[in-house]
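Exercise 7. Predict the joint structure of the components listed below.
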Amino acid sequence: MGQQPITFLRQVVALCCYPQLLESPSFPEDAKQRAQRILQDCGGQSLGSYSASQGVECIRQHVADYITQRDQGVPSDWNNIYLTTGASDGIMSILKLLVSGQDTCRTGVMIPIPQYPLYSAAISELEAVHINYYLDEDNCWALDIEELQRAYLTAKQHCQPRVLCIINPGNPTGQVQSKKCIEEVLHFAYEENMFVMADEVYQDNVYSSDCQFHSFKKVLYEMGPEYFNNVELVSFHSTSKGYTGECGFRGGYMEVLNMDPQVKVQLIKLLSVRLCPPVAGQAAMDVIVNPPKEHEPSYAQFTKEKSSVLDVLAHKARLTERILNSVPGIKCNPVQGAMYAFPRIFIPPRAIQEAQARSMAPDMLYCLKLLEETGICVVPGSGFGQREGTYHFRMTVLPSPEKLKVLLGKLKDFHLCFLEEYSQEEPQLSRSSQHQHRENSKPDA
Amino acid sequence: MNHGTALLWKRRALSSLSATRRGLPKEKMSENGVSSRAKVLTIDTMNPTVKKVEYAVRGPIVQRALELERELSQGMKKPFVEVIKANIGDAHAMGQQPITFFRQVLALCSYPELLNDTTFPEDAKSRARRILQSCGGYSMGSYSASQGIESVRQDVARYIERRDDGVPCDPDDIYLTTGASDGIVTVLKLLVCGEGAARTGVMISIPQYPLYSAALAELSAVQINYYLNEETCWSMDISELQRALDEARRHCNPRALCIINPGNPTGQVQSRQCIEDVIRFAAKERLFLMADEVYQDNVYADSCKFHSFKKVLFDMGPEYSNTVELVSFHSTSKCYMGECGFRGGYMEIINMDDEVKAQLTKLVSVRLCPPVPGQALMDLVVNPPQTGEPSYDKFIKERTATLSALAEKATLTEQVLNTVQGISCNPVQGAMYSFPRITIPEKAIKEATDNGQQPDMFYCMKLLEETGICLVPGSGFGQKDGTYHFRMTILPPKDKLTILLNKVKEFHQKFTQQYS
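Solution:
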């Protein structure tokens, strides 16, 4: 969508790819140092060697240092760090370990509704049991402990709930959970013996000034040793989001806490079959966790670029929320973090009927029409899960502000037209005069 | 008491949650008063299929090798000054140099400002521009289509057509993958179904590259072993395939046949006739063919030539080429590039049912896309500098140097190993490994067995402890009962390889004597 990469990151990767550039005067010293450090820990000093299956050692150490700093001194052991091929890879590997049992003893995995559909896909593929817990739309998609409890108790009748997945900041919902909420979730996990998977890939994408990212690990630590030494927790991060947006590099890591040592051996064995995550992605992750420091030459430019990306994202998040909320029949919760808006849309009964007649979800019908009529591609809420009888779509806030305004304008027009088209028994205006009517009464974007 | 503990006690006292704690593991109070308790995820509660997975190439012997390396770096005295990891097909780790052109293009793609840098040749720049043009936002940082960047798939298709003397290739049949391993596992996933005696069986060569056995274990598919013939340079015998198949039919539903050509660990390059026979066999017995051809550029013996399964299939006429389901796998990790760390690969899917293909596309979409640098690299592998282009000469020089060094080392390895009494090495016709047969004295076999160890693991561990040389025991790949082997790569630089081989020779003689 046109977001520019962070210069420093790409310089380091280029230096690693083609070390002859270490002689080039057009690269800053700090980038060269990072590249040299990475290459030092690569076989034959080459990005082309397989790394250890857990990842390049110095990068894992840097990840641990980053986490320790992020969590204000809560220590992170680099032996608990695994570099992964994007966060998806780590999530799949952990879920794989957890799935066992037959019939009513089959592993149940609690996932938020709405959720990022990697989870439902993985659960299906592994033939684990889906356990849906609903986020509270009326409360800005907050996690409600009673809802967790309800889902858990219901599930216990037909499976063995073992895993609790949380995405914070949320995808598609964009909420940033409060510290209190995270505490309650961890307490729940402790009480009910659940393995916690904390998807924190959007930890750098927090826009609302009322919100702050609290890492699950830090909250767990602050709850005291009884929790910190016992709750099995894996946290996932990625190079794909944040302010770097390096999706194509497939970089990621997971920090694994309190895993049984015998299971750890199994995990490493499992990872070894695929040899290692892409080393270029590992290098990208290294830069993210080990960015230029204040005294370093690239610091100023790096900070400028990072702020610029994050400021623009925050601006676009607010813009999107505001415009969507100005549309009758669309209600959008604040986009507190992540990269998406997940507005609720009112779909008239006639449209619902037509969708049913065509064997598709009503929000799919809506989104297909939107695509055909405006060229805008968004994903229907049914792809993420939602409360029965509600409809949503997920759109990213990633296009440039100018393009986003145009997009949102078209969306608004489309929605109004859609409402009109499906609200009456027979349309009172022909489609062309409906269009003319809209053109004449277009509000300012 | 800290806040968290207070919370805990308070909640325990008041919460109705306590009522649901039936069935929770017992708590134990340790000495400092902090209770410890059983974990959710233990060796008993974890996925049983994962426990069955073994992968010798990075298994126990390699872990011991890493330990020794650490001990050496801490100044501990050993009978050797360095650990030589001849266990894994990682060329760069053993000092092989990357192809300059490839790394230039990758650097240009990573940091397009370099397109203004006069030290980069024009052909590298134009390749980079073409790749970037096909990337979202002109950036390698964008997710590509799940099947892979379209222009790269087109280039792969053209490469295959050139390689196969014009046999047409449809870019839509090409899927870029995260190394070949990713593609292999994905296809196996599609194939595995059924219960009990109807469970999918997959035929794999013995010896094999243990990705296959690992994947089959994880998927709970039935592994069907067919033995390569060591006496005839690891050739495939159709009668042996038939034997394995008929036997397997009694307890599973054989559906797929995996071949690695050139072979890993065995290094044989199958003859054209053999490949034809295999295809005929697969057609007759209705088996889905998986052709692992990642070593297609690693052919050393003058008497051998790489014949792609696809080409042979098409040469056999429409009766076969329209019906036999075949997937061929390739990778950026081997050949003359050795770019393992980039995790580049592709697979070509031939005659797959359309509905299944849609499922395949859906399955790969969940993981979004393969790493874009790896895709870019694959593009260069299939679309290298051409005659007349500025980088051509250097490219050819580097490629030739690497391949001829490998050929030399293949010959050297075979020669030296065959001078050792008790070691017998088949010609290393291709790939990157030698897989010699070793005679292990009865006394050693007994000691190994008493220790619960495979005899060749016992041998290799001793070799490691005494010489620092890390090889992988044949038991990690499979072998005929009562025979023992090890796999070593031919990748170390020639002088190091010579030293290595002589140390192996000395060790073997000493070992044989020690246990006679």
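Discussion. Chain A is about 45% helix and 15% strand.
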